[in-house]
């Protein structure tokens, strides 16, 4: 009995740091945000309880609507293409020589500061003296567009930066998924005369579907949290063409000092992300295949 109690004590002792971190940095802030969303507070004067008025304001606010549409569009640009490219790179690097070195090169942008990445890409995408437009003009005689000031190109430009930076992370996840696929499937398909492309679409892609589900959920959550890239590269412009939900939260809280309204918008963002995650998990039953 004493040994059982001792094991229980040490078990809780070792998971205590994780539990404390979860409470301190996740659960308590989440509850605090919901409570704050029911208050009218500017950070200086005493808070006033106003119920769900902040949610009504956010729902009818044109800026929130614009930010939501931009964020959804950005997510549609980044998640599918990012997953597709990550699968191709993972398959290409799965059995190649010096694959550790290649994986390192692809993963380096993931651990690089987002601000540093944004500054470098601001120079690359500069419409007047950027290297991308220089190469377009030098190699193809094409006059490059204003990537970061064109209303139709600014979000795709930010999506390119995000796909490039997150490619290494998704690639590592898919590489781990590839290691779990038995070679027996490929050997049996080779006996049946399957080509490489048939093996990819009929074996690799279906058996990577659990990994694809995970990367999709993480990618959607990450795309809805875009802020630093838009803040550094475009400041939400031009004409709020790159104005995202998190940027909207930032302006409400730290420019307008409307903390209650910002918290309400953050709570709505949490509900939107949760809804997408639950829906994706439910729909995945139809396309996710697990190997026997």
UniProtKB/TrEMBL annotation:
First-listed, main subcellular location of the protein, grouped into a coarse class: membrane
Transmembrane helix among keywords: yes
Domain spans labelled ABC transmembrane type-1: 68-280
Protein topology in the membrane: Multi-pass membrane protein
Transmembrane segments: 12-36, 72-93, 105-124, 153-178, 199-221, 263-283
Subcellular location: Cell membrane
InterPro entries membership: ABC_transporter_permease, MetI-like, MetI-like_sf
One Pfam assignment: BPD_transp_1
Record keywords, A-Z: Cell membrane, Membrane, Transmembrane, Transmembrane helix, Transport
Family, similarity comment: Belongs to the binding-protein-dependent transport system permease family.
Protein name, UniProt field: Sugar ABC transporter permease
Species per Swiss-Prot/TrEMBL record: Paenibacillus alginolyticus
